[in-house]
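Researcher: I'm preparing a figure for a lab meeting and need a structural model of a single chain. I don't have an experimental structure, so a prediction will have to do for now. The sequence is pasted below. Please return the structure as tokens so I can convert it later.
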Amino acid sequence: MKNQHSDALVFFGATGDLAYKKIFPSLQAMVKRGHLDLPIIGVAKAGWNLEQLKARAQDSLEKHGGLDPDAWKKLSSLLRYVDGDYNDDSTYDLLRQELGTSTHPAHYLAIPPLLFGLVVEKLSSSGCAGANARVVIEKPFGTDLESAKKLNTILLNTFDESRIFRIDHYLGKPVVHNMLFFRFTNMIPEALWSRDYIESIQITMAEDFGVQGRGNFYDKTGTIRDVMENHLFQLLTNILMEKPKALDSESIRDEKVKVLKAIPALTEKNIVRGQFNGYLQEPGVGSDSRTETFAALQLEVNSPRWQGVPIFLRAGKNLPVECTEIFIKLKPASPFYTNYQVGQNHIRIRISPKVMIAIGLNSVNPDNETECHPVELLTTHHPDSIEMTAYERVLTDALAGDPTLFAREDYVEEAWRIVDPIIKANTTLYPYEIHTWGPQETDAHLLPKEGWHNPQ
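Model: Understood. Here is the structure written out token by token.
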């Protein structure tokens, strides 16, 4: 049933890196809030037993957020473990035994994407995916439009769309989760939120580190697949969507899909790709790799609200700072104080590492009243320990059957449609120095009218 709470959580990949860094800490937090009181069945092929899984979970909590003795005692009592190959029918026989009387489990696939189809088909043939079961899928969901469609077909042969939860944990971040509230409950910014007042939009997702030992994964993925087609598109649709007809999940997701449908597929002129110097020496990276570690895109949205507003997305590894920020440049004010060098107003929304919303305005320089002095009205928020982490929120919602923060089939396929041509185009790959803002060619080919805004 769509809104029935799951009565068991099965997570494949229980011994993996994602489970160690994110899932176990999120499960402990859910226990502390009283949001989790059901069997948690880890599945992996590690040659382990339940006690070894518990030891791994305890070590995870001690190193990632801290172990809470009472919550850990409860979490430990909920843990179960099935050890076996994902391609072996006997693994699913053991899982079915562990599920016992559970009739609507949630199967969370925290495993490499190449295994998604196999595991879903095995869940179906073994009887572990009953009429009320859910499946929770990690990103990346496919590697292009064709693979995403094939994966959707496999999923929909076993689960109807209401029982498929495609995770993009970025939507669980508080500022992203609350962006629609910010937009639709305030006259500022909503009164300005159109082509009449906005000149351009930039979204930058900068990381000041490299691939961190994940060269084998990253070299098969690249920046566009890793963060742009999913994370940055989710930010973009939250910014651009129209007010939904209602606050239910389908109304909200309908409006996000409408945004993507209005974006033409990208061409070679819309992209600059880069690769940081030294990437080819990273372990797991091919010596002749053509994988981008930086990308800049220019989009347009053919809708009445946004027609003619250029939208720039930029993301990369080994850039000067670690920061994700939205920068909305407003059109120039009507000329009046012609003897002042007046700047354009802006709205700046920082997603991470701390939450920040700023409105850039003009003021008179108090030290020289013949000069304009740009200022920002600024509010900041430092996330604290009582807030849900992104993974805690999306797992909580998936178990509760709330699909609002999850990508629907049509959303996923529209996102891939937009980037598919440039993924296949094999465009020029420009080198760039570590801790710079990508290749110099970015400014030559994709430059906003007032230049790129580089987060500080």
